[in-house]
Write a structure and sequence with these properties.
Length: 97
């Protein structure tokens, strides 16, 4: 199993509906990209002011499946249309589990 974890910080001007659209768009990738085994995504709980705004964890069978996901048109479209316009910072890791 191969896991991709990403954290996103959004522009302060990004309203709740835009943030929710990003989360929903990420969730929907499981329906359009067969290589996705599981997706867990959610907004920060708001306990600390210095946290990122959204976290996503996506699981795959292997690195090759992750590579398909990373370049899949549905993923690229989500990044281009919904994420990029409001994203100010991103952190990510991938690892074997």
């Amino acid at each position: 199993m191969f896991r991709h974890c990403v954290l996103m910080r959004f522009a302060p001007s990004a309203d709740e509906s835009r943030r929710a659209a990003v989360a929903e768009g990420i969730r929907n990738l499981a329906d359009t990209i067969p290589e996705v085994q599981a997706i867990c995504v959610g907004p920060d709980a708001g306990i600390r002011d210095d946290n990122f705004d959204l976290a996503a964890v996506v699981d795959f069978d292997d690195r090759d499946a992750y590579s398909v996901y990373a370049t899949h048109p549905s993923h690229v479209e989500l990044l281009t249309d919904l994420v990029a316009p409001i994203l100010i910072e991103r952190a990510a890791v991938q690892f074997e589990i």
